[in-house]
Every structure is written in C-alpha cells, then in structure tokens.
Design brief:
Keywords: Glycosidase, Hydrolase, Signal. One of its GO terms (biological process) is carbohydrate metabolic process. This protein has three helices and 20 strands. The chain has helices at about 1-20, 40-50, 125-140, and strands spanning about 25, 35-40, 55-60, 65, 70, 75-80, 85-90, 95-100, 100-110, 110-115, 120, 150-155, 160-165, 165-170, 175-180, 180-195, 200-205, 210-220, 225, 230-240.
Length: about 250
C-alpha cells in the first residue's frame, strides 16, 4: 500500500511538472556557449521537443551560441538573456531557404511565436560575404551575390508574432523580413547593419496588424521597407540615428 501511494504521488508530481514545467535551459539539450561549437542540431532538437510538448520557453544564458539555420515552431518562445548571443554561421551552406531567400531563422505557417529578452542575434557579415564571393568565383554558386545574402529572421504566413528586446546586428540582406504575417508586434529593438552596403533593417510584405514601438535602426540600406498592401496599427518611437521616424 505504501509503495502504491508513493507511485501515485510520483505520477501526480510528474503530471504537474508537465503542466507547468514549460521553461527549458538550452544547455539541457547540449547547446554550448563557447562561440566555436556549432549548435544547429541541438537548438533545432530543443525547439522541436518543446513544440511536441505543447509549447514553452527555451532560455539561452550568458555566452555565444554559434548556429546555422533553424526553424521556429508554433507556441515556442526563444528567450535570449542579457549576455547571450545567437551567432550566425559564416558558412553559406548552413542557411535555410524559403520563398524570400536564405535566412538564419525561419518559420512558415506558425502561430504564437516569440523571440524576446535582452540578448543579441548577430550575423558574421564580413566573413559570410567573403565566403559567398569565394563560392561565386569558383562557380559553386551562380548568379548575383545579392541573391544569396541571407537575413537573420524570415517569417512567412504566420500569425500572433512578437519580437521584443533583442539587439540585431550585422545582417547581410536584412535583419528581419515578414511576409503575410498577421498580428505582428515589434518592440524594444535595436537593429544595426552599417558595415555592409545595402543591408536593410526590417522588410514587411502583405502583412496586417503591425505594431512598432521603441525601435532604433541604423543600417546602410533602407531601415524600414513596407509594401502598399501591409497595414500598420501603431508606430511609436521608431527612429533613425538622426532622431527622425523610420517612416
């Protein structure tokens, strides 16, 4: 009887942990923060695992997490704490392709997606640019270099998306691009990309229900690009280095 009660108590605790234990540390999945080890497969496994469990938050703490392309999933929140950085691979073949081109972080047909915190998502634009030029010269890829330059984040056909508090740095094509996204909230963002020519900040296409608040963009290319079909609900304190509004 005592063993049966102990078993029931254990099962109850495990059930409760499953219901409320939606916080996960990236290190639990083997992610290393040394800036040298490539964490692509570990990060992707963590995102997939959390999604299969019904959703939750994946926390990255202090360190530099080198990664190639990763796919976001519905109901999963990426949390980059202060001092944590997702560092993009300098190898072109590590990126993922969607209908908008190549990207580090992608998502299609998702809902309830969040990226938040006080950390950094950082491209290695100079190294990646050299890698692309080398591949073009050797004939491994063909076309204009602009066709292969990736963004840091590309979301397509998604809804209920929030990006809050992240520093986006050194993208080749653009920091973020959103296509056919509904209910998009961008808040407390710092976007910089002045080192490479024509690096853009945010690209919006065919999207509805957009809110922008407390955003600073300093890029060599267009800081904010929106097509005529996209609709903004609110723009508040979204500025350029000059202090002027991004719109």
């Amino acid at each position: 009887m005592k063993n049966l009660l102990l078993l029931l108590l254990t099962l109850t605790c495990l059930k409760s942990a499953g219901a409320y234990g939606q916080e996960y540390n990236a290190s639990q999945f083997g992610c290393l923060s040394d800036g040298k080890h490539t964490n692509t497969s570990s990060i992707q496994y963590a995102i997939d695992f959390i999604a299969e469990k019904g959703g939750g938050k994946l926390h990255f703490y202090v360190g530099r997490y080198l990664t190639g392309g990763i796919q976001l999933k519905s109901n999963v929140t990426i949390v980059l704490h202060e001092g944590a950085a997702l560092v993009a691979s300098p190898n072109f073949y590590d990126y993922l392709k969607d209908e908008q081109g190549y990207s580090l972080i992608v998502g299609d047909k998702l809902s309830q997606v969040k990226i938040e915190g006080q950390g950094v998502i950082q491209g290695q634009d100079s190294l990646l640019q050299r890698n692309l030029l080398s591949l073009l010269e050797k004939g491994y890829i063909k076309g204009n270099i602009q066709d292969f330059q990736p963004t840091l984040l590309s979301l397509t056909n998604c809804k209920d998306v929030q990006v809050d508090g992240i520093f986006w740095n050194n993208a080749l094509k653009a920091a973020q691009q959103y296509t056919r996204v509904q209910n998009l909230s961008l808040t407390n963002l710092n976007i910089k990309g002045e080192q490479q020519a024509n690096a853009k900040g945010i690209i919006i296409k065919e999207s509805k229900g957009l809110t922008l608040s407390n955003i600073y963009i300093d890029t060599s290319g267009k800081p904010f690009e929106k097509d005529s079909t996209s609709e903004l609900i609110k723009v508040e304190k979204a500025i350029l280095p000059s202090g002027k509004s991004i719109l």
